[in-house]
Amino acid sequence: MGGDLAPAVTVEGALRAHRERGLQVLLVGDEQRLKIELRRLGAGETELRVHHASEVVEMDEQPGQALRKKKDSSLKVCFDLVAAKEVDGMVSAGNSGAVLAGGLFVLGRLDGVDRPCIGGSLPTVKGRAVLVDMGANVECTPEQIVQFALMGEVYARKVLGVARPKVGVVANGEEEGKGTDLTRKAAAALRLDPEIEFRGYVEGKDVFSGDFDVIATDGFTGNVLLKTAEGAVWAFGQMLKRQIQSSTVASAGALLLGPALEQVRKRVDYEEIGGAPLLGVHGVAMLAHGRSTARAILNALSAAELFAQKQLEEDLTAAARRGATLFTQRAAS
Amino acid sequence: MGGDLAPAVTVEGALRAHRERGLQVLLVGDEQRLKIELRRLGAGETELRVHHASEVVEMDEQPGQALRKKKDSSLKVCFDLVAAKEVDGMVSAGNSGAVLAGGLFVLGRLDGVDRPCIGGSLPTVKGRAVLVDMGANVECTPEQIVQFALMGEVYARKVLGVARPKVGVVANGEEEGKGTDLTRKAAAALRLDPEIEFRGYVEGKDVFSGDFDVIATDGFTGNVLLKTAEGAVWAFGQMLKRQIQSSTVASAGALLLGPALEQVRKRVDYEEIGGAPLLGVHGVAMLAHGRSTARAILNALSAAELFAQKQLEEDLTAAARRGATLFTQRAAS
Lengths: 333, 333
Known about the structure:
two-stranded parallel ribbon; alpha/beta
């Protein structure tokens, strides 16, 4: 029920995930409204099951409070189903703070994890990079950044299939002396880890180069970075559009260029990514964009399935513990 | 002598500033090399004067040390000329840390200024915004961010000619409760100032919307923001290029679109901006990009001239003092 276009688009995405990729999807929410949507889409009785939940967490509600008060909200019930292992994972396009709160308080942190984080997906010229944290934890300790990096590395390796992910920490320059106390401590600890390919600092301009597969930072910087990239590409598009409108030749060019532009737009669009995983909690929960299209929901469900299949709890726990050890090691050396 | 393409490109830019805009430019650096460049460009004996300086601060030198040791470096001598008021302002495409150090230690801070900052220029769909700080101060206090904002506001109003600049503080969301302790304190203080148009938080995606003329943040975030925007547009261009190369139709389209694309490229390019002012020091010093073209140097010199003409020391001092007062007010209320 969460998200700007729910439930119509959410149901359509789920139905497509079932029909196109054979996923078993359980819809959680207002039974009557969901069944209307299913009928509208011509879904057969047996295609998607519905699990009734009478309440909805609104997009602007205070997350913790909403989850506590609305025990029969689609989001809370969905989390309960994951916690009870009645489903293998969940996707929500709803209130992202509430999804994070659900991860923390309903699913619970994995052993050794200080703070769970959200793994965003950044398009690069070579593919995609994982951005940890993309906004869950606004103020962080070096230990947390290290854990984000190591959990992100597991995700890139096991779910995205990158053989040996290259890991970086966001800073204002490449040299070791750059950055803040926070980034320097995090980088120094990551440099001690023989199990990962740590490539040091990554500057804003190199985030999209494909030279890094895992990009670690605090949630404040991660959010600014991700949204700035979106904003810059949007602004570039707006400027180009105006320039094109002022010239017939350019308009003709734009027409011919249309399909190529559309291909690139798709590559940088969240629609194709689908979901951002919560890393560091029990079970699988994927955050989808609030304005997710049916295609975005479909992709998020696929990503959740893949994440669940990989059964990463042990690996993520090990990564978080290794992160903590790096600091003990550093203090001892 | 500083910058990746110096002195050839620097001299060419200076000569163009003289010929095209009537600026009186003094070249500071190795007399022999500068005169060779001037001859190569067919400059007359009286067009540009040369002030000899025997040393050069390298791009990767430790800033403070370099300035102290190389007393006859082009950068140090240039700062001395500004401090002695023998010139009205200076431009350097050299070691940016050393330019900052020169501002601090040779020119000196304006009364009441805690830390000087660098005002970057961000292209927006409506024009340009000033980004303060774009990288000089990696770790900041709320008081410093407030001073950056107020000094940036003076620059936007007096030099860029924005009648009533709209001021924002970078954060991970628009709501007052978002951000960090740092941003919340800075925003709360700015909200108390009746002399400026404070619009609250600005998210990464809105940085380019033109809804803000002055965008205040710490130097770490400012650097990440600026470089991420550069990187995102670059990556988008790379992806588009590849897509175009795989299709004849798209190639034809790109050919027709070329001039429009070039116009947009110019708008987002640092070349057209030229320089980033040091705000909060005595005198005028402009940082130019290390890879500045002649056109970038020309524009930086023009910007320095305009800045010098406006005689902003009083206004900047008043802004800095007002910033400090906002915190006293806040503590008292």
